[in-house]
Write a structure and sequence with these properties.
Blueprint lengths: L5 H10 L5 H12 L2 H13 L25 H16 L6 H12 L16 H22 L3
């Protein structure tokens, strides 16, 4: 991934104005110079997702927190994409945090092994996700003076 320029972000907004707002928020943040705040808010939102995990049972609409649950592979992938984007967009420049993110991204997550429902996200992995989110949010607050 390469850093998105303000010009490219503005063009994306102009050419895709019909898309739902949440899909365009990242590009608005680039144009407005608020990308660190955008990512901080995204990570805070995902940090509030449920930590519930019950190996052996797929979560679905039956659970009150669905689909906002850290045990879901799609959520883990989404967090990884946010982290990778923060590096690509040069929001995160600290070498130590970048290395921790690389390790997070290269992890062989239990829920991604085999067929759906064959392996399960563990409580230990939920703890790793929360630690990664916490470390990144602290970095963003400290580096960019976010509240």
């Amino acid at each position: 991934m390469t850093k998105t320029t303000i010009e490219v972000a503005a063009r994306v907004l102009e050419e895709n104005e019909h898309l739902p707002s949440p899909l365009l928020d990242r590009f608005r943040a680039i144009v407005d110079g608020n990308l660190p705040r955008y990512y901080h808010e995204e990570l805070m939102r995902k940090r509030a997702y449920s930590d519930y995990c019950q190996p052996g049972r797929l979560v679905a609409e039956w659970h009150q927190d669905y689909p906002h649950m850290k045990c879901r592979v799609g959520v883990i992938v989404g967090i990884g994409l946010d982290l990778q984007s923060m590096i690509s967009e040069e929001v995160i420049t600290d070498d130590g945090l970048k290395e921790k993110i690389r390790q997070f991204l290269s992890r062989d997550w239990e829920g991604q092994k085999g067929a759906k429902g064959q392996f399960w996200t563990t409580g230990e992995e939920i703890d790793l996700i929360n630690d990664m989110l916490d470390d990144t949010m602290v970095y963003l607050k400290r580096t960019y003076g976010l509240a």
